[in-house]
Design goal:
By secondary structure, this protein is mainly beta. It is built from 2 helices and 13 strands.
């Protein structure tokens, strides 16, 4: 493995156990109010906090479910965080009410198997289908919030954040910078 991407650590020369550390993107917190970051950024991208989702009563010991409105008995979307191995979670599944199809795509079935997520959820008799999987993409510079993104090419339009000290899910959206105006647009 390339040294800039992976480092292996052995406690001493006779140890049989080897630890693997992979390079991860670090996000800077630019502004913080009541211990919740409002804006995070990388070198060239900025993300704005748009929503804070709350834990659902339908959560289990291995999967925490989050909803936008805890009063809504039948939400359109659930985010499920697989916390079977770590407190912050290994992956996050986006579950939606079925639309044109009542089964997950082959791509989502494969992603579910790889990440330990369920392909579907049944809550109050309603089936929700896995439509997206978010995996860790980095952490904030203070290390408290792990950020999850999709495996899509380029910068994701949305990041989900989990603070290991809180039972909330933060939804950050990419801030698209305004295009520079031309002299004709400014009347110059």
């Amino acid at each position: 493995a390339e040294r800039s991407q992976v480092i292996f650590l052995r406690v001493n020369a006779t140890s049989q156990q080897v630890y693997r550390f992979e390079a991860a993107l670090t996000y800077q917190i630019e502004f913080q109010v009541s211990e919740q970051p409002r804006t995070i950024s990388t070198i060239d991208q900025r993300y704005q906090l748009r929503q804070v989702w709350q834990a659902s009563v339908y959560s289990s010991t291995s999967v925490l479910l989050f909803v936008q409105d805890v009063e809504n008995a039948a939400p359109e979307v659930f985010y499920g965080v697989n916390v079977s191995q770590t407190v912050v979670g290994e992956s996050i599944g986006e579950y939606r009410l079925p639309g044109e199809t009542t089964t997950a795509s082959e791509e989502m079935v494969a992603a579910a198997e790889r990440t330990g997520l369920n392909v579907d959820l049944t809550i109050n008799g309603q089936v929700y289908i896995l439509v997206n999987v978010y995996e860790p993409t980095g952490t904030t510079s203070n290390g408290f919030i792990t950020l999850f993104g999709t495996a899509a090419e380029g910068d994701p339009a949305m990041l989900l954040g989990r603070d290991k000290r809180e039972l909330e899910l933060f939804v950050f959206e990419l801030v698209v910078p305004a295009a520079p105006s031309t002299p004709a647009e400014t009347g110059g």
